[in-house]
Amino acid sequence: MTDSEHPSRVGTPLHFRDVVIEVMHKIKHEDHSEAHQIFRDSAGHKPKGVLPQTVNPDEETVPGIQHPGSTGVIYCSDRAIANGFSYANSHAWSNLGQGAPEVGPIPDAPPRPTSIPVPEDSLEYAPTTGVKALREAVANLYNVTYRKDKKSKYTYENVCIVPGGRAGLSRVASVISDVYCSYQIPDYTAYDQVLGAFRRLVPIPTALSPDNQYKLDINQTKKDILSQGLSVILASNPRNPTGQVIAGNDLKTLVDLSRESTTLILDEFYSWYIYPENEQEWGNSISSASYIEDVDKDSVIIINGLTKNWRLPGWRVCWVIGPKNLVTALSQSGSFLDGGANHPLQLAAIPLLDPEHCQKEKIALQKHFKMKRDHVLKRLEKLGMKVEVPPTSTFYIWLNLAHLPAPINNGLTFFEELLKEKTIVIPGIFFDINPAHRRNLFHSPCHHFVRISFGPPLADLDKGLDAMGRVLRKAKKEGMKGFGHSYKKSLDGTGESI
């Protein structure tokens, strides 16, 4: 705000609204930020461990039930709906928040599925471990892609089919005993709910630094295993939201830890989204399966599925791969957690896992999404928002807003301002895996970030980038007086603040 824009500089008394706006631009605590208070007022997001009660009465939906809180995508979708978004009018919006790739045809890729056979036996329940033929297809794909030179091979007994990645995580978490579980910040938002719900997993965080390209310090991890008694390491790889990847000797060293009384759980949903600079490397993908010595002895658990790589998020057909005794345990947990994946869609998925088919999909996907990544990075740089650590994998950009003027220099406020422009991003605080929810949000290492997805089609990406440009031009032209307030709390405007 310039001197001429500031009411007190021209001898005009400050009205109450102006005082509030002035305070908003100097805030350093969430209690004084409208965007942050809307977040805290959403069920399940109030800070815990502050008051002596064990259940927040405002969140107790029925006696004894405590609201778990929403994941980032769900919260952001709800806020967008309060601002007029609906799936009927979604074409008018740019959704750069949804963690899903575009599902339509892309250049040089095999044709998209257009119909699903439904044989009579598929009307029955499928086994909780999944259809045997699909389990065999998954095992074969991993053996062909990552284990050609390995004596130990996966079989169908090493594969459990699950109805989505979250279901896979939940099944695994439900069969883990009381242990210390290491995870990194930032990482996938659903880990927060998993670590909060399955309380036998005692969460031990490690903050990753942009100064080190968000790399996991393997040597420090080894020390933590010895000093803190870590039994489980949970991580996404390639990494959501930073777009980085643990590969080569680093990944091998990490897998080696599984032979030292530590279980490694790797979420590998973005394993095809690798963007090589050398054209000869098109079609290469990443998996810890490459470095496992014995598939039944190395305690490595891989979670993956059709959602991202095959660009079929609506199918909810995914898998967990690991030692045989893990799969038998997951069968039991699936019987009371989710009941198993969709039977007809499991059958329809089998031909999609043919290795030759997958290679064609992989190359087309990598070329198309690399083009979109480069396009978005160039446009952000033109807007003065150069990305410090560009993604080498996934379809996410971890964008630091710290250089912007307050209050749009934090993820929640920037998110709310973009909602006014019919654009959705995900505030960085959702990737600060913090099951206790005690931290002042302004102290989060993810506070000044948003995650931008370049998963949607190119036209949607440009629409969202245009919206960011409008916000930044408004800030430059009009100053900051119009930001940080007047956010809708509901679709009809009830509860709309000053």
N→C terminal distance:
19 Å
What is the CATH architecture term of the largest domain? 3-Layer(aba) Sandwich
The whole-angstrom Rg is: 24 Å
Instruction: Report the CATH superfamily of the largest domain.
Output: Type I PLP-dependent aspartate aminotransferase-like (Major domain)
CATH topology of the largest domain: Aspartate Aminotransferase, domain 2
Residue-averaged pLDDT: 88
Low-confidence stretches: 1-14, 50-55
Number of strands: 12
> How would you sum up the major sheet?
7 strands, mixed
Helix/strand order, N-terminal first: HHHEHEHEHEHEHEEEHHHEHEEEH
Strand order of the largest sheet: 2-8-7-6-5-3-4
Protein name: PLP-dependent transferase
Family: Belongs to the class-I pyridoxal-phosphate-dependent aminotransferase family.
InterPro entries: Aminotransferase_I/II_large (IPR004839), AspAT/PAT-like (IPR050596), PyrdxlP-dep_Trfase (IPR015424), PyrdxlP-dep_Trfase_major (IPR015421)
Pfam family, one: Aminotran_1_2
